[in-house]
Amino acid sequence: MNNRRSNIEVMADILRLGRAGKTEIMYSANMSYRQLQRYLEFLTQHEFIEIMKVGNPVTTYKVNKRGLRLLKTIENLLEMLDWRLDWREIS
């Protein structure tokens, strides 16, 4: 398999941060500003994260309960897939 992260893995990386600003998310999740904008738009539109105004112009993003459920689901799925991939390599 290639070493590139899937969209789901990138979203999980963002959700794991809990609460952060754009710069912190961008560096922690190792992505460009353009990619960051795309993921933040998706996650906010689907109500997995909330926009929090901290000051002017400071904005942070906070994972809500729905986002935490998504993160748990993603982590369970990735765990299952890793197990299946390991099993396929052995057979």
Brief descriptors of the model:
3 strands; Arc Repressor Mutant, subunit A; three-stranded antiparallel beta sheet; 91 residues; globular; 62% helix; alpha+beta
Walk me through what this model shows.
By secondary structure, this protein is of the alpha+beta class. It has a single domain (7-90), classed as Winged helix-like DNA-binding domain superfamily/Winged helix DNA-binding domain (Arc Repressor Mutant, subunit A), CATH 1.10.10.10. It has helices at 7-16, 22-28, 33-45, 65-90; strands at residues 19-21, 49-53, 59-63. Strands 1-3-2 form a three-stranded antiparallel beta sheet. A hairpin with a 5-residue loop joins strand 2 and strand 3 (59-63). It is globular, with a radius of gyration of 15 Å. The two termini are 16 Å apart.
How would you summarize this macromolecular structure in one to three sentences?
The protein has a 3-stranded antiparallel β-sheet.
Task: Describe the secondary-structure layout.
Elements: H1 7-16, E1 19-21, H2 22-28, H3 33-45, E2 49-53, E3 59-63, H4 65-90
Antiparallel strand pairs: 1-3, 2-3
Helix pairs in contact: 1-4
